[in-house]
């Protein structure tokens, strides 16, 4: 597989459930990101991992818990979510200060999360 | 005031039209400017990248940056129905790309 792969593609969960989103990148990038995309809003940066170390937590509620076991895998653990957390969750990767041809991020297709 | 402003649309045009998509921004420190295209049920994909002011052309697409006006544009010539997507502008202050700031995206519909 190539690029950035996210699973599952769709997820419906109750407010008391615990679930996890998975992201895997096959690009050899050293930085990975979680973004939240809601209708008519800009992409919201949630977490940044650089060389497996979390370098950014953009005031995200503790009901979202990221995990980065290695530079190719990123998880977002979810628990006791609220209906307003329903959104498209996008994973991205980039080569931080890498080759001149590596501009911007490569995004996965996202997980469409619905909290009921 | 939002850091990046982008009209959400939708913008509807007939096939073959020239399309102009725009963003304005408030932070004069931004130096790197990108356009992403996002098809329905997909993640954004990088379309164009420019550094500082000037124009960049790639096939039917031209990206333009006017730093003095804090205004960036994406022009699409001879638009096709396959260009129907949401176009997001993004920008950052340095090459780290870890602080990309996105616009809301403009939805473009090209009718045959």
List the helices and strands and how they pair.
The complex is a heterodimer of chains A (116) and B (112).
Chain A: E1 4-7, E2 10-13, E3 18-25, E4 31-37, E5 44-50, E6 53-57, E7 64-70, E8 73-79, E9 87-94, E10 106-107, E11 111-115
Parallel strand pairs in A: 2-11
Antiparallel strand pairs in A: 1-3, 3-8, 4-5, 4-9, 5-6, 7-8, 9-10, 9-11
Chain B: E1 4-5, E2 11-14, E3 19-25, E4 32-38, E5 45-51, E6 54-58, E7 61-66, E8 71-76, E9 85-92, E10 101-102, E11 106-111
Structural write-up:
The complex is a heterodimer of chains A (116) and B (112). Chain A has strands at 4-7, 10-13, 18-25, 31-37, 44-50, 53-57, 64-70, 73-79, 87-94, 106-107, 111-115. In chain A, a hairpin with a 2-residue loop joins strand 5 and strand 6 (53-57). In chain A, strands 2, 4, 5, 6, 9, 10 and 11 form a seven-stranded mixed β-sheet that branches. A four-stranded antiparallel β-sheet of chain A has the order 1-3-8-7, with no helix packed on it. Chain A is built from no helices and eleven strands. Chain A has 116 residues and is mostly beta strands. The mean pLDDT of chain B is 92. In chain B, the strands form two sheets. In chain B, strands 2, 4, 5, 9, 10 and 11 form a six-stranded mixed β-sheet that branches. Chain B has 112 residues and is an all-beta fold. Helices cover 0% and strands 54% of the residues of chain B.
Write a compact overview of the structure shown.
Chain A has strands at about 5, 10-15, 20-25, 30-35, 45-50, 55, 65-70, 75-80, 85-95, 105, 110-115. Chain A is mainly β and about 120 residues long.
């Amino acid at each position: 597989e190539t690029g950035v792969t996210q699973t599952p593609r769709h997820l419906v969960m109750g407010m008391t459930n615990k679930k996890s989103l998975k992201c895997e990148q096959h690009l050899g990038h050293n930085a990975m990101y979680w973004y939240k995309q809601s209708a008519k809003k800009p992409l919201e940066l949630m977490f940044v991992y650089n060389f497996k170390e979390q370098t950014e937590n953009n005031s995200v509620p503790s009901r979202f818990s990221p995990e980065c076991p290695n530079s190719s895998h990123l998880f977002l653990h979810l628990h006791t979510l609220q209906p307003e957390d329903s959104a498209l969750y996008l994973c991205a990767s980039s080569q931080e200060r890498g080759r001149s041809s590596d501009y911007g991020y490569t995004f996965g297709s996202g997980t469409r999360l619905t909290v009921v | 005031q939002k850091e990046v402003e982008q009209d959400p649309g939708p913008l509807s045009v007939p096939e073959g039209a020239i399309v102009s998509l725009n963003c304005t921004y408030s932070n004069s420190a931004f130096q790197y400017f990108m356009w992403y295209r996002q098809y329905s049920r997909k993640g954004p994909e990088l379309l164009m990248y420019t550094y500082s002011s000037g124009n960049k052309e790639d096939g039917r697409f031209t990206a333009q940056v006017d730093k003095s006006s804090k205004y960036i544009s994406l022009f699409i010539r001879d638009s096709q129905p396959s260009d129907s997507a949401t176009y997001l502008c993004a920008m950052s202050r340095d090459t780290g790309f870890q602080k990309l700031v996105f616009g809301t995206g403009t939805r473009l519909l090209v009718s045959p």
